[in-house]
């Protein structure tokens, strides 16, 4: 259930899979089997068979007295029943697997025992272990090893498996998932986002000054406001304009698969004068100076789409009132970009660049069940100097749906 066939690619269940995949070393005792020395040639030996090595009696099987089954090492991997039930409720399992489990068409493996160096030793009446060559050459054993099976003779056993083999499983109770709440939604949405705003000033004394920054996650507002302290000589207010900069930004979820970007960035440059002199409070010989102000807002919003049903549905991404130059990028759980539907080749893999603030949409072809991310990113900035003001404010929307 928590393997590649059933887990939604990219889901948190892959972390659980890694956890249960950690092996616990165990000890498997060797087993000794007495044999019927009167077996006819070609008859299967009455012992557990190793896949790829069908053990059959040879024409001179009577020289064999016993068989010993042993392993070089063994380990177990286990899935806790509560973890299995939680995974079924958490929506991390493909919908087709959930349906089969609840209908009892599937059984869940709770414990798997794996052995390395699984081998049989065959002993003669002198209690001597027989190599494969000797056992076959003397007619004690028929040579029935499958080609490419990974089973062969070895220096310490008659036949031995070169690769680890599953030697036992424990199935969870057939009614484990009956009556439990299960996640039956074919598509699920989640959202994340971040807003970063900055202000800074320059150009002379009294400007806004050093760079300042504020940031906020989805649903919270990032906000900054700064005002300069420009003053003119002789008369503080003479031809003075104080610089100012402000930035407010917020990314919020406004429904299933929907994000809203709200922002205001504004900046005004400043001005002051220095003088050659001051006569009775009047400026003499003035020189004007400009200061600059800059405000920025960087906004990123991500809609994560978990597709649990089979097939390759289309993601429909609609957007409106986003700044020109906004990038809309759709990637799968491997961070590989998706093609817009109907577009083939490398040219269709890049992000969509918003060309205007009008409402528009793009469709992307998915690759079956998995986690997809619709990433929307843009940067706004206003930078002005000297008695000039600039302001940008708007609310933009992104909506993702599955067709």
Could you please describe the fold and organization of this structure?
By secondary structure, the protein is mostly beta strands. It has two domains: 172 residues, no CATH class; 215 residues, no CATH class. 8% of the residues lie in helices and 48% in strands. The chain has four helices and 25 strands. Strands 13, 14, 18, 19, 21, 22 and 24 form a seven-stranded antiparallel sheet that branches. The protein is elongated, with a radius of gyration of 37 Å. About 1% of the residues have low confidence.
Give short descriptive properties of this protein.
403 residues, mainly beta, 2 domains, six-stranded antiparallel β-sheet, 48% strand, elongated
Put the structure in a nutshell.
With about 400 residues, the chain is mainly beta.
Number of strands: 25
Radius of gyration computed on alpha carbons: 37 Å
Query: Low-confidence runs (pLDDT<50, min 5 residues)?
Result: 344-348
Number of individual domains? 2
Helix content estimate? under 10%
Which H/E pattern describes the elements?
HEEEEEHHEEEHEEEEEEEEEEEEEEEEE
Please count the helical segments.
Answer: 4
Question: How does the helix and strand content classify structurally?
Answer: mainly beta
- How confident overall, as mean pLDDT? 84
* Strand residue content: over 45%
Described by the principal axes of the CA atoms, the overall outline is elongated
Major sheet attributes: 7 strands, antiparallel
Distance N terminus to C terminus? 27 Å
């Amino acid at each position: 259930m928590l393997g590649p066939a059933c887990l939604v690619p990219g889901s948190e269940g892959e972390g659980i899979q890694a956890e249960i995949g950690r092996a616990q070393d165990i000890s498997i005792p060797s087993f000794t089997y007495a044999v019927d020395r009167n077996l006819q040639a070609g008859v299967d030996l009455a012992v557990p068979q190793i896949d790829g090595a069908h053990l059959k009696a040879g024409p001179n099987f009577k020289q064999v007295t016993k068989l010993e089954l042993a392993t070089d090492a063994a380990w177990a991997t286990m899935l806790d029943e509560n973890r299995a039930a939680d995974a079924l409720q958490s929506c991390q399992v493909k919908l087709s697997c959930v349906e089969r489990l609840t209908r009892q068409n599937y059984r869940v493996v709770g414990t798997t025992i794996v052995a390395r160096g699984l081998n049989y030793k065959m002993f003669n009446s002198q209690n001597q272990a027989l190599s494969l060559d000797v056992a076959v050459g003397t007619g004690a054993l028929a040579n029935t090893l499958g080609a490419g099976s990974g089973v062969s003779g070895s220096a310490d056993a008659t036949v031995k498996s070169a690769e680890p083999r599953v030697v036992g499983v424990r199935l969870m109770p057939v009614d484990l998932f009956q009556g439990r709440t299960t996640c039956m939604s074919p598509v699920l949405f989640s959202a994340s986002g971040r807003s970063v705003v900055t202000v800074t000033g320059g150009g002379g004394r009294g400007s806004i000054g050093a760079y300042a920054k504020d940031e906020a996650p989805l649903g919270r507002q990032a906000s900054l406001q700064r005002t300069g302290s420009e003053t003119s000589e002789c008369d503080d207010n003479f031809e003075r304009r104080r610089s100012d900069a402000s930035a407010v930004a917020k990314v919020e979820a406004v429904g299933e698969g929907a994000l809203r970007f709200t922002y205001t960035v504004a900046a005004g440059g400043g001005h002051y004068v220095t003088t050659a002199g001051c006569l009775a409070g009047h400026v003499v010989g003035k020189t004007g100076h400009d200061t600059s102000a800059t405000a920025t807002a960087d906004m990123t919003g991500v809609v994560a789409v978990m597709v649990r049903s089979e097939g390759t549905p289309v993601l429909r991404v609609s957007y409106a009132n986003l700044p020109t130059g906004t990038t809309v990028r759709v990637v799968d759980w491997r961070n590989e970009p998706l093609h817009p539907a109907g577009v083939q080749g490398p040219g269709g893999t890049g992000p969509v660049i918003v060309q205007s603030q009008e409402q528009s949409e793009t469709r992307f072809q998915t690759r079956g069940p998995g986690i997809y991310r619709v990433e929307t990113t843009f940067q706004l900035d206003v930078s002005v100097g000297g008695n000039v003001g600039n302001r940008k404010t708007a609310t933009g929307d992104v909506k993702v749906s599955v067709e």
